[in-house]
C-alpha cells in the first residue's frame, strides 16, 4: 500500500528540492515507501538546537543529515545518524573536555563501527577548540570508511585529527592489523554497534529493512555479539588509558545485559536515559582497585 507523506513532510520536501522536477521525484519515492530524510520536518520527535527530527530516518532523499552543528553526507548502504545517537554524543562532549584532562598528548578517540563518522566528528568539532584531539573511526564497510573520511574533510578536519580506516574489530588480531598510527592506549572508545536481535530484525518495517544496511543493524541472534567483542577488546591490558571512558549505544531493552557483559570484563557502568525515556547508552570505566 502506498505511504502518504504528511502535509508537513511535503512542505519539508518542497523546501529541500532544488527544482519542481526534483520535488516531484521526492514525492514519487516517498509514496513508494522510501523513508524521508530527517532535519527540517515537523513530526513526533526530538527537538535540539532548533532542529526538529522525525524519529525514524533511513535512506535520505536529499543526501545530507544534520547532526548537532554538522551537516553530514549520507547515502546507502551506510546507516543514517539517529537523533538518539546525537543526543548522547552531545552529552558525552559536555562530560569530557580535553583541556580539563591535563593530558600531555592529544586526546585519543576510537569509534568502532563508525558509519558516517558522526560520533567522532561531533566530538572533534566540539573539542578541537578546547584541546588537541585525534580520532579514528573503524568500519568493516569500505563505503562507510570512504563516506566518513569525506565527512571529516567537509567538517574541516585534517587526517591528523580524524581518519577512518577499514577494519574488523571482531577479528582476534584487532587492532594489530591497523596502521601503526592507530594504536592504544585510547582515552575514549565509542560505538553504536549493530544491536538488533535476529527475531526483531525480521519484524522491522519494510521502510527500514529495505533501505538500511543489514550489517549495520543485525547484532547476531541475541543482539549482543558486538558488545561481547567490545568488552573483550577494551579489557585487554594497555588498550585503554587510565581513567578511559567507553560509551556504547544500546537497544531499548539491553541495558542489563550489556552492563553484565561489561561488569564481567572489569568495568563499572552507568546507564544514560534518552529524551524518549529509553535506556540508551552505557558509560563504562575500568574498576579502580585499591591496595
TrEMBL record:
Entry-linked SUPFAM superfamilies: S-adenosyl-L-methionine-dependent methyltransferases (SSF53335)
CDD domains per the UniProt record, alphabetical: AdoMet_MTases (cd02440)
Pfam families listed in its UniProt record: Methyltransf_31
Keywords noted in UniProt: Methyltransferase, S-adenosyl-L-methionine, Transferase
Residue spans crossing the bilayer: none
Domain of life: Eukaryota
Domain named Methyltransferase: residues: 107-215
PANTHER family to which the protein is assigned, alphabetical: HEMK METHYLTRANSFERASE, MTRF1L RELEASE FACTOR GLUTAMINE METHYLTRANSFERASE
Name recorded for this polypeptide: Methyltransferase domain-containing protein
